[in-house]
Amino acid sequence: MSGEQPKLWILWWWGAVLVGVALGYGMLHFVYIGDKYLGMFGFIAAPFVQGLAIAYIISKSKSSGSMGITGAVIVSSILLMWLLMLTWGEGAICIIMAAPLWVAFSLVGMLLGKSIARHNKGTAMAVGIIPLSLIGAYHLDNTIEPPQHYIQTTLDIDAKASD
To answer: What digits encode the pLDDT tens for the residues 87-108?
Structure first.
């Protein structure tokens, strides 16, 4: 945190964290209800948008520096994973295996969100366009059929018939 900060910086920080949790949960819920399959959209687009929104909100409010934004993205990711374990019954092993991928893509989204907030002099329109462009990724993810494998087992017994 740098320089003079508003007294309500903690509210902006926690507000951004909760917006990130809500966006991530909402996107995953949308995908899961439709497909019961969390593919590319669930593990790339949802954390990306989560990090993007958090970074944009905190950067525009000028309530925290880079470390505060990074911390907010990580805290939001942890809270979302905890929420998934409570509400979806997601297993801890699945969460632990998905966590590095989730955090990595949310940090990439954070970098873009910070950049947009820094260089965009207008409204939040630029941030809204990016999630809309990911609808194509959702459609592409749903058109790819996972390979299906069929296994057949036979048992041949080479024995003489008994009388």
So the answer is: 877 788 888 888 898 889 899 9
Single-letter amino acid, residue 108: V
Tokens for 136, please give them. 């194509």
Q: In angstroms, rounded to a whole number, what is the distance separating the alpha carbons of residues 79 and 143?
A: 31
Q: What is the pLDDT of residues 9-30, one digit of tens each?
A: 788 888 888 888 888 888 777 7
How many C-beta atoms surround the C-beta of residue 40 within 10 A? 15
- Within 13 Å and on the Cβ side, how many CA atoms surround 43? 12
CA distance linking residue 62 with residue 116, whole number of Å:
14
For the beta carbon of residue 45, count every other beta carbon within 10 angstroms: 24
Retrieve residue 157's tokens.
């017994």
Number of other residues whose CB lies within 10 A of the CB of residue 9: 16
Task: Spell out a b/e string for 109-123, using b for 16 or more CB atoms within 10 Å of the CB, else e.
Answer: bbebbbebbeeeeee
Are 34 and 97 in contact, with CB atoms under 8 Å apart?
no
